[in-house]
Prior knowledge:
11 helices; MetI-like; transport; Putative spermidine/putrescine transport system permease protein
Amino acid sequence: MEKRPRSFYVLASFFGLFILFLYGPTLTIAILSFQGPKGGLTFPMNGVSLHWFRDLFEQQAVGDIWGAFRRSLLLGFMVMITTVVGSVMAGLAFRKRFAGSSVLFYLAITSLVIPSILISLGVGLIFNQLGFRVHWATSGFGSQLTWTLPFGLLIMFAVFNRFDKSYEEAARDQGASSWQTIRFVVVPIIAPSLIGVALFGFTLSYDEFARTLLTAGSYNTLPLEIFGMTTNVTTPVIYALGTLTTLFSLGVIGFFLLTFWLIGKRRARFGSDAGKGL
């Protein structure tokens, strides 16, 4: 067996430290969330129990945790659906060059480099000037789209740039209309990419703070609620909330990955059956 060079172990150690740096704070919060009833916010731990998880489901003296969670969940789904639909429509539109397409593209992705707090401030001011109510489902929804749509556009542009148009031509030769071609040919082929866009849209919305800070109005989303709790909650219940929200995020990612795997398995089975038919 070939001996590995010393540089391999140096790089592996560096990568291990990088992973620890990424997930160390999350693991620390998860461990501290299992403190005993008399536990505090720091080490050493005072007992081990599920007390703070149970306390999380009781009436809290401050804040509206579960209301904020429902708002973040609903807002995440709204942003996800809009991002997927908008990205696909833009990807289809940009397949053919038209006057000003380059300018529109760069304008669309410029919001990624503008400080998020300025986007939040600008959207909030626009709603105020137009006489509209600043609310998480309107202004908050709009400000978050400035974050998720550019990512969706970049993904769909890359997908359609390498999309084989011969599939569409074959469908049209068989008498399929434009809508039938998109529904039964294009969408099934790009389905894995749509899952990626949906995952981006939901997760970016679910944990967005800066772009929602000045656009959520009187009702907090979950990130805003957690931030507010850091100023007035002095028990590990906030760690229990962080642990549960992290598990929920991992569950959402796992659901999308499972969906992606099932689609790939179905495609492989379909290809195998088609090969046997030939």
